[in-house]
Specification:
Elements (H helix, E strand, L loop, with lengths): L1 E13 L12 E13 L11 H13 L4 E2 L14 H15 L7 E10 L2 E5 L2
Parallel strand pairs: 1-3
Antiparallel strand pairs: 1-2, 2-4, 4-5
Length: about 120
Amino acid sequence: MYRLTVKGSFSAAHRLPNHPSPCSRLHGHNWEVTVTVIGEELGPDGMLLDFTVLKQILQEVLAKLDHQYLNEIPPFGKELPPTAENLARYIYHEVATRLAPYPAVTLQEVKVGESPSAWVVYTP
């Protein structure tokens, strides 16, 4: 089994209105995101998936979030707060959709960090 991981980042603001802490106020993070795919068979080029392809997919997803107020980006809002957990699940599904043309790989996990010491990992 091969595991391939790429990393990206974006800057964005959010607030968690139902959280009884300073996080209920508007604040921002420099978010770090890693995406890991797995697969067993290498292609004729000796690769599971070109790093460039996976980086491009991740950047495409993160570009929608970069320098945004996440509470105003669908699907986030009152019913779905933009927590690190919900962001990880959202990014997972956005990346998985874009990986459909690459059946040799399976998206294993998405890791989202809002600081160097606070991360969440989403695996379905």
